[in-house]
Structure formats: C-alpha cells, structure tokens
Amino acid sequence: MNVAIYLPLVLALPLTFTAQWIAARGTPALAARGLTTIAVVAATSSTWSLALLTLTMLDDLPPLSALDNPTRDMPEPVPGPFALLAGLALLAVGARLLCDLRRRLQTHRELRAIGTPQQGLVVADSCAPFAVAVPGRHGDAGHVLVTTGILRLLDAQERRVLFAHERAHLVHRHHRVVAAAAIAAALNPLLIPVREAVVYLVERWADEEAAASVGDRDLTAQAVARAALAAVEATPAAALGIGGGAAVRRVRALAAPAPPPRRRRLVGPTLLGAGFLAAVTVATYQFVALARAWL
To answer: Can you give the pTM of this predicted structure?
Structure first.
C-alpha cells in the first residue's frame, strides 16, 4: 500500500486554510452547502483511511495469524506502529462523534421542553435575551423560541427581522447543514475551521433572507447588532439564533450590497473533493488486492 492511503488524512489542510476566505465571498447559501458537502467527503475519506490502516493489523491477531503461510514472503503493507496509531485515532473519532451528537440532541430536547409552540412560536418568560430556531421532529417543521427579554430589547421593526431570521433557519433546515459540518469536524479535527465557517455562513444566509423579507439591509444590520450584543452569553450552545456567529462580520456584510453568486470560489474545493475520492478509491483497491494475496 502506498501514499494514497495517507493522503485523505492530510488533504483537509487546504480546505482548512481556505474555508474562511470562501465564507467571506459570494452567496452564503451556496458557500454553506458547498463547504459542508466537501467537508463530509473529506471526513468520510479520512475515516475510511483510518479504518483501512487499522484493518492491516488483523493478520497479526489470533486466530487469523495462524493462517499465515511462512513460506510466502508477504511485504508488510503498513508499519505496525502506524496501524496501531490509526486504530487509536479511530476510537478517538468515534468518541468525539458520540459526544457531539449527544450534546446536540440534548440541547434540542431542552429547547423543545421549554414550551408548546402556538402557530410556530414559543415565548418564554425570561429576562435573558435570546431567540433560537428549534428543529422539529418526525416531519414537524420546528418552531421559533424567543424570550420576553429579547422582545423588550427590540422595537417592532427589529422584531420583524428577528422572526424572519429564525424562520429562515427553519425553512432551509440549517440545523442539518450545521450538524453535517459538526460531524465532519468530529471525524477529522482538521475540519474544525470549516465547521466554524459553516456556522457563520448559515447565520449570514438567514441574515440575507431576513433583509430580503423586510426590504431593508440597514434595519437588518441594526437588529443583528443589538441582538448579538445582548445575547453573547444567553444563546444556548448548538442552537441557531440571530445573536450567533461573528456579529461584527455579519453587520459589515449587511452594510454592503447583497452578494452575487460566485460559483468559481468552489472550484478549488470541488477539485479537492475529487482528490479525496480518487485517493480512497486507490487505497481501497490496493487493500482488496493485498487481502486477496494474503488469503
């Protein structure tokens, strides 16, 4: 087995270094979907490489070791320490993934338990100013959860922005996009900057939807700024709300004209995704050939 099996473990680095650059340019919806898709490909490829590296240890374990033919000179496909490290890394990947999923599901359960939605809205009597989009279950579209604290903080026009922003999260299923990017980052820690870029992009996506809905980018920027300043410590983790993301960058983006689609920004990551698929295909072919020769 050659270098192809190791490539998916490091090919995420270019995506890591360019994620914020991509997030700062072009349409947020397109960039969020594109980065998330390529991150999932990258994470799946690197995890598959770890699995293949780990499987090379099987012939050293009983009872499979008894099948070795001492008269046949079979080269060691992967150095033993590398295979052992890959196995340990695979266990760590599984633990990180379970922790992330558990935290995310627990957050959603706690938010749903706050109240029963009426016409897609729950108003919680709390001075803590936050608003979040709560994903639904079993085909339910979800609902918006706001506190009396944030309703008192914003005026009537800013509340229009608030609800348009949160409804955009629900309509476009942003929790799924963010969850996919988070899973990718759990599988491959090199993708953590990509996860952060996707979180920022879905907030920008909802900002643009809100600005289009109310027809006023300046008003949207004002509402985002006020909500973000008030909700820095109040928004629950793993939840999508108007106060989340990099508020200063979002306000600056809203102060500029609506961004045009720029699909060229995703050409590089798309080619990188093709590289991932090519590398794992070659590595899998080599592993299957090795397994046949061993058997």
So the answer is: 0.86
